Structure formats: C-alpha cells, structure tokens
Amino acid sequence: MGYEPKTKATDVDVDAFIAGSPKPADGAVVCALMGKVTGLKPRMWGPTLVGFGEREYDLAGGKKGRILAMGFSPRSGQLVFYIKHPEGWEERLARLGKHKTGKGCLYINKLADVDPGVLEDLIAAAWRETDKI
Q1: Structure confidence by residue, pLDDT tens digits, 100-113
Q2: 53: Cβ contacts below 8 Å, ≥ 6 apart
Q3: Widest CA span in the chain
Q4: Quick check: is 13 in a domain?
Q5: Edge-to-edge strand ranges of the sheet holding 100-102
Q6: Residue 5 within any structural domain of the chain
Q7: Is residue 72 assigned to a domain?
Q8: What is the mean pLDDT of the chain?
Q9: Counted domains in the chain
Q10: 44 - beta bridge partners?
Q11: Is residue 108 domain-resident?
Q12: Which domain does 93 fall in, by range?
C-alpha cells in the first residue's frame, strides 16, 4: 500500500472553521493577513490547519509529498504559525512581542501580544523564501 499523508487539503469551509475555532477574531485577522501577503485563497489542510499555497517535500525512498506552503491554526491556547524561518528571523522575533518558537512553528497566545507590523513583515519575508508550487 502507498503512502497516504495525514495532512492533506480538504473542502471544509475555512470561514466556518475559523468562526467555530477557539480564537475566531484573531483567526480571521491572521487569515486576512496571510491572504493579503500570498494573494491566495485559504484552504483547509486536515481538520485544523488553514493553509495558503502548496509545496513539495521529500519522503523516504525518493518519493515526494505535498503540504501547505504556509499556514496557521487558531488553537485554544495559542495561534500556531507554520511559516518558513526567513533571513532576519531572529531580529524580527526580537521586535515581535510575546511569542514562543518550536521546530518550524511560531506560537502567539493572542494577536494583542505582538506588533502587527512586525508580524506582517515576518509573514511576508517567510512567504518570499517559501518554495511554492
């Protein structure tokens, strides 16, 4: 049997998902911001990820997979951003405001905790460096 990705694009309504999420107001703002930066419409990936664009990644055995190029999830404890770490990442984070980082993710409790201009700059820089298909 072939590889079946856990996270794949779905036809779930993005606006309905965000409206029913734990952080609907912040989720709507982030969705609009990522749409502005990417010029793309959002699409759900799996049950909880709002994604923009697609990219290819390598799998074992020389196979390729597809995943969202950039996205976020409005979870109960925090907003989780799935964005590339662009050049100047650390400098931008130093100016962002209250946040945490993990492997490939940026975590923000609420948008009021961060500088919106720095967040937009960070997302735009990440998008410019993302390999998109």
Answers
A1: 998 879 999 999 99
A2: 38, 40, 68, 69, 70, 130, 132, 133
A3: 48
A4: no
A5: 43-45, 49-58, 64-74, 79-82, 105-108, 100-102
A6: no
A7: yes
A8: 91
A9: 1
A10: 50
A11: yes
A12: 24-128
Instruction: Compute CA 51 distance to the chain's CA centroid, rounded to the nearest angstrom.
Output: 6
| Residue in the structure block whose two tokens are 């925090």 | 78
Q: Report the predicted TM-score, pTM, of the whole model to 2 decimal places.
A: 0.90
CB 55 within 8 A of CB 130: yes
pLDDT (0 to 100) of residue 39: 96
- Name the token pair of 74: 């409005």
Contact 87, 127 (CB under 8 A): no
Give 39-76 pLDDT, tens digit per residue: 999 999 999 999 999 988 887 888 888 889 999 999 99
Q: Helix, strand, or coil here: 81?
A: strand
Q: Do the bridges between strand 79-82 and strand 105-108 make them parallel or antiparallel, or are there none, so unpaired?
A: antiparallel
Task: Say yes or no to pLDDT of 122 above 80.
Answer: yes
Is pLDDT above 70 for 1?
no
